[in-house]
């Protein structure tokens, strides 16, 4: 019965909202990992800078008007982390 409803009913929310929530969770997870890494980091200033960037991204993802730019910034940051072993 649930599958039938899912097939025939219009979605109640915007799919973009789901993407925003997913990106927000990714940013929050990365912030937690940075917090743990900061305890033993050789460059704690870099860790603080990255945490500040992620905090701004999380805030901007809450606003639909700035979410696209914030999402792009997060994906670019994640891409750099892959290159540096993150």
How is the topology of this model organized?
Layout: H1 2-8, H2 15-38, H3 44-61, H4 67-83
Helix pairs in contact: 2-3, 3-4
Strand content: under 5%
Instruction: Calculate Rg over CA atoms.
Output: 17 Å
Enumerate the spans where pLDDT stays under 50 for 5 or more consecutive residues. Answer: none
Mean pLDDT value: 87
Distinct helical segment count: 4
Question: What is the succession of H and E elements?
Answer: HHHH
> What would the principal axes of the Cα set say about the shape?
elongated
Distance between the termini: 44 Å
Decide which structural class fits the backbone. Answer: mainly alpha
Helix proportion = over 70%
Q: What is the number of beta strands?
A: 0
Quick one: biggest sheet?
none
Supply the key terms.
86 residues, mainly alpha
Plain-language structure description:
The chain is mainly alpha-helical and 86 residues long. Helix content is 77%, strand content 0%. It contains four helices and no strands. The longest helix is centred in the N-terminal third of the chain and has 24 residues, at 15-38. The radius of gyration is 17 Å and the shape is elongated. The model has no long low-confidence stretch (mean pLDDT 87).
Produce a short descriptive summary.
The chain is an all-alpha fold. It is built from four helices and no strands.
